[in-house]
Amino acid sequence: MLKDKISRREFVQLTGSILIASMAGATLSALFNSCTKEGSNPVQPPQGTSFTIKLSEHPDLSQVGGFKTFTVNSTPIIVFRTGQTTFKALSLVCTHQGCTINWVNSSMQFQCPCHGSKFDKDGNVIQGPASRNLQSFRTEYKSDTNEVVIYL
Ligand code: FES
After folding, report:
1. Cβ distance 70 to 53 under 8 Å?
2. 112 in ligand 1 pocket by Cβ < 6 Å?
3. Separation between Cα atoms, residue 59 and residue 146, nearest integer Å
């Protein structure tokens, strides 16, 4: 037969066990989510917009091989001049967990300060933990206005 009442000691032990179990569950859940949600939360620019760069205002992009970073709608991007009329634009948001990566010109690669991911100059992963390449954006050079349009 079940007891209708539990002692004070049994009540304290039972509530303590429930509290510890729920705290452990919340902690494990937080750890699991932080380790498994790769790339689910990086800041991404709004799609379907464009960003125009007037080259006369950005001498860093006047020569082939030049590059410059911009912030578009709170998202850091980097633009490289790859030819007289060609440009490349990449997101600087790490695809692992969204840290802002750095371009290291001496090694010609991107490095993430958070967990060490590395990407080549085209944004391809060369060292994890990131497993997805950097987001790239279509670019268009307009010779009549000497501008570059970045399509986000
Ligand atoms: S955020 Fe983890 S490697 Fe970049």
Report:
1. yes
2. yes
3. 12
Please tell me the distance between residue 38's alpha carbon and the centre of ligand 1 in angstroms.
Answer: 9
Opening angle at CA 9, ends 6 and 11, nearest 5? 50
Can you tell me whether residue 126 is helix, strand or coil? Answer: strand
Ligand 1 atom nearest residue 130's Cα? 3
Q: How far apart are CA 138 and CA 89, in angstroms?
A: 7
User: Cα 113 to the chain's mean position, in Å?
Assistant: 12
Residue 77 Cα to ligand 1 middle (Å): 16
Would you say the CB of residue 99 lies under 6 angstroms from ligand 1? Answer: yes
- Tell me the per-residue pLDDT of 105-122, one tens digit each, with 9 for 90 and over: 899 999 999 999 999 999
Q: How many CB atoms lie within 10 A of CB 42?
A: 19
> Ligand 1 centroid vs 75 CA: distance in angstroms?
16
Tell me: pLDDT of 73 over 70.
yes
Token readout for 104 is: 């290291």
Query: What is the full DSSP assignment across 18-76?
Result: HHHHHHHHHHHHHHHHHHH-TTSS---PPTT-EEEEEGGG-GGGSSTT-EEEEEETTEE
pLDDT mean over 47-70:
90
